[in-house]
Amino acid sequence: MRRTNTNQSQLFANRAYDLAKHRKDSAQVLESLFNVGISYDIVGDPSKSLIKYKEAERIAKLLHDNRSLAYLTMYKGSATEYQGNYADAIVFFKEALVYMEKSKDSTGLSALWNNIGINYQKASGFAQSVAAFEKGLAYASNNIKRKISFTSTWPILTKP
Questions:
Q1: Is 24 exposed, middle or buried (0-12, 13-18, 19+ CB in 10 A)?
Q2: d(C-alpha 130, C-alpha 117), whole Å
Q3: Is the alpha carbon torsion for 81, 86, 89, 94 positive or negative?
Q4: CA-to-CA distance for 36 and 143, rounded, in angstroms?
Q5: Residue 10 to residues 6, 36, 100, 112: CA-CA distances in angstroms?
Q6: Helix (H, G, I), strand (E, B), or coil: what is residue 64?
Q7: CA-to-CA distance for 100 and 80, rounded, in angstroms?
Q8: Distance of alpha carbon 133 from alpha carbon 90, whole angstroms
Q9: For a designed S-S bond to 116, which of 14, 22, 84, 132 qualifies (C-beta 3.0 to 4.6 A apart)?
């Protein structure tokens, strides 16, 4: 059943991609390529997902979309990790850090450092993995502090 839903999802993602190309809507083409790439990741075909992510990356660069570039590069790292190429995955994740810092996405930065730590751990870089996890936790704790600060600013949100 799940495979059928995934196939259906891929079909719709490819249709959206075709429509966006026909309309010459670069932002929608970018979003559609994301979705097609993710659908290939879900079915365990990282080589096809990498092709779609590289196509999307070209468009994101033309649009100067740092947040999309960060996530595309992170997804390329995940697909590479899935293939067992941990050192290459780390390179992608570190490249994504540059874009993520430009987009000021602290949640994404936390996730990236976590991914780097996991891949160092898989590649037997224990000390490096600990350092990466600590950086990820620092970003995560900043996110938590912001949420706590927000709820304390609005006391009604903290009432049971």
A1: exposed
A2: 7
A3: positive
A4: 30
A5: 6, 6, 27, 26
A6: coil
A7: 19
A8: 13
A9: 132
Q: Are 16 and 28 in contact (CB under 8 A)?
A: yes
Report the distance separating Cα 27 and Cα 33, nearest Å. Answer: 10
- pTM value > 0.70: yes
List pLDDT tens digits, range 117-142: 999 999 987 889 999 999 999 888 87
Q: Which of 113, 106, 111, 115 is nearest to 147 (CA)?
A: 106
The closest of 50, 29, 31 to 40, measured between CA atoms, is 50
Q: Which residue has the tokens 């927000």?
A: 150
Residues 57-108 have pLDDT tens digits of 999 999 999 999 999 999 999 999 999 999 999 999 999 999 999 988 888 9
| CA–centroid distance for 126 within its chain | 24
The tokens 């947040």 sit on which residue?
67
Residue 44 three-state SS:
coil
